[in-house]
Amino acid sequence: MERPSVDHLQGIINKLRHKIGVLVVENAALLQSVDELDIEVQKKDAIIVDLESKIKEQKAVVSK
Question: What's the domain of life for this entry (predicted)?
Answer without folding.
Answer: Bacteria
